[in-house]
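Sanity check

After download, print the first record. It should look like this:
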Amino acid sequence: MERRKATEAEASALASGIRLRIIRLTYAEAMTNKEIAERLGRDPATTLHHVRKLVATGFLAPQPPRKGRRGAKEIPYLSTGLSWELPTGGVLPDGSTNQAMLEAYLAEVAELGQGELDQTRLVIQVDAAGREEFRERLESLLLEFSARPRVPGGERTAIYVATYPSR
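Expected structure tokens:
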């Protein structure tokens, strides 16, 4: 899959750690604004602002309304997968999308219990061609797994990858 350049509105929507977390939360299961707010420990009005921006830019799609516990109409939202069609890092020149990805990752990791985070750290020493080969092969593996159909009842697994100069 060839990733296309993000529009300015899409890039702006991705420049928020909260919005990235909302996209991730609604990846496999539609959630209402109230459910999202509860999961994030946020005020529903604030969360609704983020949900509306994600809907307006195509990252979330409203699902058919349903009745809530008290009979009120609730609208669940589901991630469209659009975020995976765009470049992963550096979408905005100021680096805010990179910062947002890191913020989302740190917030999610902070919620994990001891032993739930599987980490690996590695330093490699290769030339520019080797570094590009590594990046392309890693991207290919991620694309391969992202293209697999969602498995009902399957375990959701989040992946955060960062490469940087080792000084």
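If your output differs, re-run the checksum step. Summary of this record's structure: The chain is about 45% helix and 10% strand.
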